[in-house]
């Protein structure tokens, strides 16, 4: 598999406060990967830098072989990176259907692209809420909508920041089932979440960061076999 995402020597600062210190991350095409670590260690900052939402101070970010440093977020989105942000960020004054129609695009000319109809098949609950506004949805329904909204852009890389955060257990299981189905189709996925057991089952590779630096990288079998890493870096 060729590299889809290559992050090398990434450094990011908020004013005088540096957050990332030479972070490296590589994802092959078609892989599922995670970015793990305790709160405040730089995970979301890494995702924001990849998506063009946070300027970098050093390093490189390459997507599908092309440098995307300095690109506007909308250009990065059109290039094939879709973010499901922490907190969902659904538009309160758009209906479910309007969210999906507004973001729907098949720029790669896929034979079977994601469409609103396919999203409704994936999340039947959204079909029932198709005419409801974003602020009329439950937290779980908003999370489904945020994932569906990203999928209809037909991304090469789907990034999810805390996709199961704050959800009821049954809804959380629906989200994990959805991600497993996407994984089975060959969708490239990068996930931040705290449920390590679920991530081990979902992903091929894992990167753990602490204080803005990579402290461990490896495959699911390695992470599953070494619970000492969990306790040391993840607080589990």
Distance between the termini: 32 Å
Q: Tell me the β content.
A: 25-35%
Order of helices and strands: EEEHEEHEHHHHEHEHEEHH
Q: How would you classify the quaternary structure?
A: single chain
Task: Kindly state the percentage of residues in helix.
Answer: 25-40%
Number of extended strands = 10
Task: Report Rg.
Answer: 17 Å
Summed up, the helix count is 10
Strand order of the largest sheet: 6-7-8-3-9-10
What low-confidence regions span 5 or more consecutive residues with pLDDT below 50?
Answer: none
Mean pLDDT: 94
Structural class: alpha/beta
Shape: globular
Biggest sheet architecture? 6 strands, mixed
Write the layout of secondary structure elements.
Elements: E1 3-14, E2 17-28, E3 32-36, H1 43-50, E4 58-63, E5 66-67, H2 73-79, E6 81-84, H3 96-103, H4 116-122, H5 124-128, H6 139-151, E7 157-161, H7 169-184, E8 188-192, H8 196-202, E9 205-210, E10 213-219, H9 220-225, H10 227-234
Parallel strand pairs: 3-8, 3-9, 6-7, 7-8
Antiparallel strand pairs: 1-2, 1-4, 4-5, 9-10
Helix pairs in contact: 3-6
Key features of this structure:
6-stranded mixed β-sheet, 236 residues, 10 helices, single chain, 4-stranded antiparallel β-sheet
């Amino acid at each position: 598999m060729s590299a889809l995402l290559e992050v090398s020597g990434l450094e990011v600062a908020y004013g005088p406060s540096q957050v990332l210190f030479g972070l490296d991350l590589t994802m092959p095409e078609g892989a599922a990967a995670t970015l793990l670590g305790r709160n405040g260690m730089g995970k979301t900052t890494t995702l924001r830098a990849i998506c063009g939402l946070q300027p970098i101070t050093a390093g490189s970010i390459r997507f599908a072989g092309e440098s995307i440093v300095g690109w506007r977020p909308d250009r990065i989105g059109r290039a094939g990176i879709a973010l499901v942000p922490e907190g969902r960020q659904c538009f309160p004054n758009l209906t479910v259907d309007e969210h999906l129609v507004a973001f729907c695009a098949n720029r790669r000319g896929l034979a079977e692209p994601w469409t609103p109809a396919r999203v409704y098949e994936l999340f039947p609950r959204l079909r029932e809420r198709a005419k409801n506004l974003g602020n009329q949805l439950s937290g779980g329904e908003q999370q489904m909508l945020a994932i569906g909204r990203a999928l209809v852009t037909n991304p090469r890389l789907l990034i999810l920041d805390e996709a199961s955060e704050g959800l009821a257990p049954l809804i959380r299981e629906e989200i994990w089932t959805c991600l497993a189905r996407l994984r089975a189709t060959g969708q490239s996925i990068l996930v931040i979440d705290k449920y390590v057991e679920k991530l081990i089952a979902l992903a091929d590779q894992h990167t753990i960061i602490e204080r803005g630096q990579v402290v461990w990288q490896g495959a699911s079998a390695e992470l599953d076999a070494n619970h000492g890493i969990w306790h040391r870096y993840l607080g589990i």
